[in-house]
Design a protein that fits this description.
CATH architecture of the domain at 185-429: Alpha-Beta Barrel
Number of helices: 11
CATH superfamily of the domain at 185-429: Glycoside hydrolase/deacetylase
Strand content: 5-15%
Shape: elongated
Oligomer: single chain
Helix content: 25-40%
CATH class of the domain at 185-429: Alpha Beta
Number of strands: 14
Length: about 425
């Protein structure tokens, strides 16, 4: 064994936290060897704490945000510039002036001096860097100024709209000169000095020589929902009569739109239902508990809402219609104002129909409610009932509401009438023609 091996012979390894020990031979004498143990301390290793999961995640987030911030500081402006160029834009003029679409300064698109050239309508410029979606300015869609007022009796200057049932027939403009007076609540219809009456002047033209059985459809409760009202106006044939509630906030505008589409219009007079007061139709309801003057005042409010309608419709049969003393002044007022009356729930033997005939009020009564059950099958059954009644008596009237299913079924059904030998007629074409 070498001398170094004898001097530095390591014994077994000490524990991790202890100092290492060595045996040193003092003398080389083999017979009497003296040994001395020398303990050499070593510095302990520092303790490294184990990081927790949230701490690691926080470090990763901080590192990522730091890197993102550094990248944006170097390349952010360039990226935003490219994004602006590649984003589709819609240019709409708000003041009727031509729209000038200037590309961002960072791109090399058309220079700003080219802006006045955009005024040429036939020229379209596309900015570099991506697709462009453009709309014509509002100035291009602005309707031409209205023509001078037409003479009395002329048709309104409303461009016809061609739909699935063809272009609408032109209705007389409203109000007609000499057929309106100012009442305490607004303009009211009157019979003109020459005898013209609203129910005839504002009616939809119809060939009175047509001998086919006639079916009239009246859609009520319009004006409360602009969406439902617009659907009825646009999707139903012009021969369908539309009845408007007096409570709608945009009733005048919607009535004008309906007449422009060729629809006759009625005003719905709220009247006391059998379930009153649990079912209250509103503040202008005709009630048996009110005086005649109060009911007439309420009716005049309904009549003053808008011009151009041909009459009034009611769809309830409460106590008010059983009171002859209160009912007669109402019917007389309607006759004096040149209007017709549609009794939605009437029968030829009802008190309303008898009294209407007695005062000379043009009248009609409904034969079927189309959508008490608002389903396709139920509505189709009621429409078939109207066909049968019309073939038997020559006239039938259906009353409906502006449910989507009602509008859809009536529109489809109307397309089948010609092949069945029937004709869809406005309400003015069936007045005073039902069997008594």
């Amino acid at each position: 064994m070498s001398l170094l091996g004898n001097l530095f012979r390591r014994k077994k390894a000490p524990p991790p936290d202890a100092a290492e020990s060595y045996e040193i031979v003092d003398a080389p004498d083999a017979s009497e060897t003296k040994r001395r143990r020398v303990r050499i301390p070593l510095p302990p290793l520092p303790a490294i704490p184990r990081p927790s999961g949230p701490a690691v995640g926080a470090l990763v987030v901080v590192a990522g945000l730091t890197g993102l911030g550094a990248w944006l500081s170097l390349h952010g402006d360039e990226t935003v510039s490219k994004r602006v160029v590649q984003t589709p834009r819609v240019m709409v003029s708000l003041d009727g002036k031509p729209v000038v679409d200037e590309p961002p300064a960072e791109t090399k698109a058309a220079p700003k001096e080219a802006a006045p050239q955009v005024a040429e309508p036939a020229k379209e410029e596309k900015p570099a860097g991506g697709p462009q979606v453009s709309l014509p300015s509002l100035a291009a869609n602005t309707p031409p100024p209205p023509p001078p007022a037409a003479a009395a009796g002329a048709a309104p200057a409303i461009p016809p709209r061609t739909g699935r049932f063809g272009p609408p027939l032109q209705l007389k403009k409203a109000p007609e000169p000499g057929m309106v007076e100012q009442g305490p609540k607004g303009p009211l219809p009157i019979i003109a000095e020459d005898g013209r009456q609203a129910w005839k002047v504002y009616g939809r033209p119809f060939d009175d020589g047509d001998k086919r059985p006639r079916i009239a459809i009246v859609i009520t409760e319009l004006g409360l929902s602009a969406a439902a009202t617009t659907a009825a106006i646009q999707q139903l044939p012009g021969a369908v009569t539309l009845a408007f509630t007096p409570y709608g906030p945009k009733v005048p505008e919607l009535v004008e739109e309906a007449r422009a589409a060729g629809h006759e219009t009625l005003m719905a007079a709220p009247s006391e239902p059998p379930e009153f007061p649990r079912n209250d139709p509103g503040p202008y309801t005709l009630l048996a508990s009110l005086s005649t003057a109060e009911n007439l005042d309420r009716l005049e409010y309904v009549l003053s809402r808008v011009p151009g309608y041909v009459g009034v419709v009611t769809t309830t049969s409460g106590r008010f219609f059983a009171n002859e003393e209160q009912l007669q002044p109402i019917l007389t007022l309607l006759r004096r104002r040149g209007l017709l009356y549609v009794d939605g729930r009437g029968t030829p033997k009802s008190l309303v129909q008898q009294m209407s005939a007695a005062v000379g009020l043009p009248r009609a009564y409904g034969n079927r409610f189309l959508d008490l059950e608002a389903s396709r099958g139920a509505i189709d059954t009621r429409l078939a009932d109207l066909e049968r009644i019309a073939k038997e008596s020559g006239i039938a009237i259906g009353i409906g509401q502006p449910y989507p299913v009602t509008i859809e079924r009536i529109a489809r059904w109307a397309e089948t009438l010609e092949e069945k030998g029937l004709v869809l007629a406005p309400i003015t074409a069936v007045v005073d023609r039902q069997p008594q």
